[in-house]
TrEMBL record:
Name of the featured protein: Fumarylacetoacetase-like C-terminal domain-containing protein
Annotated ranges, domain Fumarylacetoacetase-like C-terminal: 2-238
Keywords: Metal-binding
Alphabetized GO MF terms: acetylpyruvate hydrolase activity; metal ion binding
Homology family: Belongs to the FAH family.
Species annotation: Entomoneis paludosa
Length: 242
């Protein structure tokens, strides 16, 4: 299953006309077959880039770059301080959104399924296992993320960040132009809190993915666009819109 957190960055909540205050998070879902594996290739050439088809029934497809949590151990009513034990790893995802259909759904107070849960709507990078991020031998590769993850497991602060930690950046480029950039510390609800709250409503299962929200700067995509995104220390995502 794919769970998504809505408006988990204050600046994005504002740009969507929402309340940026720390209100309880809300969730929506995408079908599991919406996932499109999109690892960033190391070779050149368009044939090496995964193609994501422009969806039906929209003229306003938008990108939303997100940190993705992969659940490794299932559970229900998970305590915040135990949440990290349920994580298999982290990835980078793009919550593709039919913004015009979402606007209509909001206006009519209807569900967002047609706007969010369509075919190929969840491109995801390859997953970095949590054990690798916590391994000190990978420090050179995952430096900021290593510290950030260790702080999440140490309960140093409410948000899981200590003063010494530089929070990883999250970003997306479209045709080489930066569209979104934020910091994971800008999340209204931290990863352990999201897992805990979600597990009060659903029995989480191994293999579940959680999209944790997007920073400000969401915008349109057109056929032919090359999309590249990342979170510092994680595997990047890359695909084009066909």
């Amino acid at each position: 299953r794919i769970y998504c957190v809505g408006r988990n960055y204050a600046a994005h909540a504002r740009e969507m006309g929402g309340d940026p205050n720390r209100e309880p998070p809300f969730f929506f879902t995408k079908p599991a077959d919406a996932v499109v594996p999109c690892p960033k290739t190391t070779t050149t050439g368009d044939s090496d880039v995964v193609s994501v088809p422009y969806p039906l029934a929209t003229e306003d497809l938008h990108h939303e770059i997100e940190l993705v949590v992969a659940i490794g151990q299932g559970g229900v009513r998970i305590e915040v301080h135990q949440a990290m034990h349920h994580i298999y790893g982290f990835a980078v995802g793009v919550d593709l959104t039919r913004r015009d259909l979402q606007a209509v759904a909001k206006q009519l107070a209807r569900p967002w399924d047609s706007a969010k849960a369509f075919d190929h709507s969840a491109p995801v990078s390859s997953i970095v296992p949590l054990t690798e991020l916590l391994d000190t031998s990978t420090e050179a590769v995952h430096s900021d993320t290593n510290h950030w993850i260790r702080d999440l497991t140490s309960d140093t602060t409410e948000m899981g960040l200590s003063p010494r930690t530089k929070s990883p950046s999250i970003w997306i480029l479209v045709n080489g132009e930066e569209r979104q950039r934020g910091s994971l510390e800008q999340m209204t609800w931290s990863v352990p809190e999201i897992i805990s709250i979600l597990s009060q409503q659903f029995h989480l299962q191994p293999g579940d993915l959680i999209f944790t929200g997007t920073p400000a700067g969401v915008g349109p995509l057109q056929k032919g666009d090359l999309v590249q995104g990342g979170v510092d220390g994680l595997n990047e995502i890359q695909f084009n819109i066909s």
